[in-house]
Write a structure and sequence with these properties.
Structural class of chain B: alpha/beta
Shape of chain A: elongated
Number of strands of chain B: 14
Distance between the termini of chain B: 19 Å
Helix content of chain B: 25-40%
Strand order of the largest sheet of chain B: 6-7-8-3-9-10
Strand content of chain A: under 5%
Number of helices of chain A: 13
Shape of chain B: elongated
Order of helices and strands of chain B: EEEHEEEHHHEHEHEEHEEEHEH
Strand content of chain B: 25-35%
Radius of gyration of chain B: 23 Å
Oligomer: heterodimer
Number of strands of chain A: 0
Radius of gyration of chain A: 20 Å
Structural class of chain A: mainly alpha
Largest interface: A-B, 25 and 32 residues
Largest sheet of chain A: none
């Protein structure tokens, strides 16, 4: 328990920043919705003139509906970015920060196994993302009532759960990269690089056949591609994502347990 | 023969194809302080980090309290106090919070020891670690290695950054731990400190162990220079036949020579010939250390190696 508190304490400033940032984005975007709704007819005909490819890339289908608006403005880029950032930074810290700071020299010579140390740090990161997801669900459920945005609570929960799945997946990726390299900046950079590449491949898939063929192995397809705000949680894709996440965590523990801790 | 608390048998560590240390072999027994010397990059830290499980051993064996050391041997670490070289602490915590964190991680209550040791070191536990001087940060690091009264202590450059008064207090604490039966492996650049604290010394150079010897025997076997002052000029032939003396130089009333081993015969002869005073230039551990690490060949040193 003491290590959970220590890990949380290490991150609380950046965590609060990301959380308030997410809440601010939700507030700003929801405040725009009444204007969008009141000019729905005009906007719809305006958007109809956009090239189909453009609308596909930016997920602008059904923009004036509640699900379409939230999907375009929050769930296709801004909120995934926050979950990926939180997940990747906590993951890189979990497996590489203490070695880079050399505080691991004392921590890892205490009578607690490396697997336990890393497991506790991973657990803390997952809990932090669950708390962030809960705050987002609450703010969205309350917020849409104020602006009269038509969307069921279960769809909002499904959308945020999908983001949570994505965030935890990138937490696992950066945890593994940190366990392999022992460098936080490399682990974080690697995970963010993979996220950018994955997002570009996912976004441009409707236009590029090669990218289209890669969608089955693209984490963004398993999450955002399942259109959770319209269709709820896709159990199959979610399971795939969770299995890959668990495999990455397992490999991270295996590697971390065996690596030489550099002075 | 007691069971060694620390036992290294041919410990070898490679970093990829680069040698860290090769074939390091020594034991440290309960209640013994083993000095661990070597120049920078000689393999001291590699050996110590292997012993506490931060590094995987390439070959050989390392045991602590009868258990094989490995990166996964977390149980045995409960009985080890480890102080890394240039220790890094959690800078956003106070000294008290940090030491309390480590005690809780060890699942023991060390409140009394923390305050008592802080008092001995004149350390302000209420200040954030990043606000402390390097010396005070070192005090916190030293305390964390002692606070659970470990049976085995592995201390890498423990007095680095400590002022002489605190160094003296540290020496006293090492003595107390030794009296409690702890086996202590201590590396230091302060050779007089090792000479003062250690029972035996192991010296490594370029990743190889070049010497393992008791400090007292080491000094016995060292070559000493002696200046003898007589009431009247003496002739050289009076010292003929005395074993163990070399480089005899006679300058009127002053006679200089080097002596290996005991010097009783020389002094007896000198007294019989009107000795007025005597001055001995004892080799220190510094001399031995520098001879070893600069000479390269253990057989060509300024002291008699071997048993």
């Amino acid at each position: 328990m003491i290590l959970i508190f220590k890990t949380a304490r290490d991150h609380w400033r950046s965590y609060l920043t990301w959380t308030f940032g997410a809440l601010a984005m939700v507030g700003i975007q929801l405040s725009i919705y009444p204007t969008v709704r009141s000019s729905a007819a005009g906007l719809t005909s305006f958007l109809d003139n956009f090239p189909k490819a453009f609308k596909q890339v930016f997920r602008m289908e059904n923009y004036t509906t509640g699900a379409g608006f939230l999907s375009t403005e929050l769930f296709s880029m801004l909120l995934p970015l926050i979950f990926i950032a939180v997940g990747a930074s906590w993951g890189a810290s979990a497996s590489a920060q203490e070695e880079e700071d050399r505080t691991a020299d004392i921590l890892l010579t205490l009578p607690i196994s490396r697997v336990r140390v890393l497991s506790i740090k991973i657990l803390t990161a997952v809990l932090a993302q669950i708390v962030l997801a809960s705050i987002l669900i609450t703010s969205l459920v309350v917020g849409i009532r104020f602006v009269d945005l038509p969307l069921g609570t279960t769809k909002i929960i499904a959308g945020v759960m999908t983001l949570l799945t994505l965030g935890i997946l990138f937490n696992a990726i950066s945890t593994l990269l940190g366990a392999v390299w022992g460098k936080k900046s490399l682990a974080l950079g690697g995970a963010i690089g993979l996220a950018i590449a994955g997002f570009l491949f996912f976004s441009l898939a409707p236009l590029v056949n090669t990218f289209e063929r890669l969608t089955p192995i693209n984490p963004f397809q398993w999450t955002l591609g399942s259109r959770p705000l319209y269709e709820g949680v896709d159990v199959g894709y979610t399971l795939v994502s969770l299995v890959v996440t668990l495999a990455l965590y397992g490999t991270s523990l295996f590697v971390f347990q065996r690596r030489d801790i550099q002075a | 023969m007691p069971t060694p608390a620390i036992s290294l048998q041919g410990l070898t560590k490679y970093y990829g194809s680069d040698l860290g240390v090769a074939d390091v072999t020594f034991d440290v027994f309960p209640g013994e302080v083993m000095g661990f010397l070597g120049p920078n990059g000689s393999g001291k830290t590699t050996t110590m980090r292997s012993l506490v499980g931060l590094l995987n051993i390439s070959s050989g064996r390392a045991q602590i309290l009868g258990e094989e050391v490995s990166v996964n041997a977390s149980a045995v670490r409960a009985r080890i106090g480890y102080l890394p070289g240039s220790p890094a602490l959690y800078k956003n915590l106070t000294g008290l919070e940090y030491l309390d964190f480590l005690a809780r991680m060890r699942k023991i209550d060390c409140t009394e020891q923390i305050h008592s040791m802080a008092q001995r070191f004149d350390l302000d536990l209420g200040r954030k670690i990043h606000e402390l001087s390097k010396g005070s940060q070192q005090k916190v690091a030293v305390i964390q290695a002692f606070l659970h009264y470990p049976q085995v202590m592995i201390l890498d450059e423990p007095t680095s950054g400590l002022d002489p008064i605190v160094q003296r207090e540290f020496s006293a604490m090492v003595g107390e731990m030794q009296a409690r039966g702890a086996a202590i492996l201590l590396s230091s650049h302060v050779l007089s400190e090792v000479e003062h604290l250690a029972d035996r010394v192991v010296i490594v150079n370029a990743g190889k162990q070049v010497l393992l010897e008791e400090i007292s025997r080491l000094k016995e076997k060292t070559v000493r220079t002696i200046d003898l002052y007589f009431r009247a000029p003496v002739k050289g032939d009076v010292f003929a036949g005395i074993s163990g003396i070399k480089d005899l130089r006679i300058d009127g009333k002053r006679v200089s020579c080097t002596v290996v081993g005991e010097e009783n015969s020389l002094l007896r002869c000198a007294v019989e010939n009107g000795l007025e005073s005597v001055q001995t230039h004892e080799s220190t551990l510094d001399d031995i250390f520098f001879s070893l690490v600069s000479g390269g060949d253990a057989n060509d040193l300024n002291f008699q190696n071997g048993a």
